[in-house]
Amino acid sequence: EFSYRGRSLADLKGMSLEELATVLPARARRSIRRGFNTETLRFLDRMRSTPVEKVIRTHCRDALILPEHVGRRVAVHTGKEFKEIEVRPEMIGHYLGEFSITRRFEKHSGPGVGATRSSKFMPLK
Q: Which keywords belong to this entry (predicted)?
């Protein structure tokens, strides 16, 4: 059974935004207190209006994950492509961008031909 700081998921879903802010960490609490920007508000409206089984694509990486989002699928833009995430209860209070990494590790291969003195004698592919 999931609980977030001693409260069940059903309790969290029943709370208003102001009540929820008292339970969330400081950064999320401050974000709620200052009010959401228009991009985040549009994202929240789309979340509420679309059916649960439909994937919602968004560029809004700074949207706060609320209890009402649990169980939804969201495709968050990485700067190059959309990465689909399934919102789980453990993600409440985090931001969408935290689960859609913008950088990827690029493994370097061997040196190119002529890059060093020793690579001069390496056979070409």
A: Ribonucleoprotein, Ribosomal protein
Residue 120 lies in a domain: no
Q: CATH number, domain at 39?
A: 3.30.860.10
Residue 50: DSSP 8-state: S
82 forms bridges with which residues in the sheet?
Answer: 77
Number of domains in the chain: 1
Q: What digits encode the pLDDT tens for the residues 45-56?
A: 999 999 999 999
In sequence order, the 6+-apart residues with CB closer than 8 A to the CB of 28 are 21, 64, 93, 94
Look up the pTM and report it: 0.79
Q: How far apart are CA 84 and CA 58, in angstroms?
A: 10
**Structure token digits, residue 21:** 């802010």
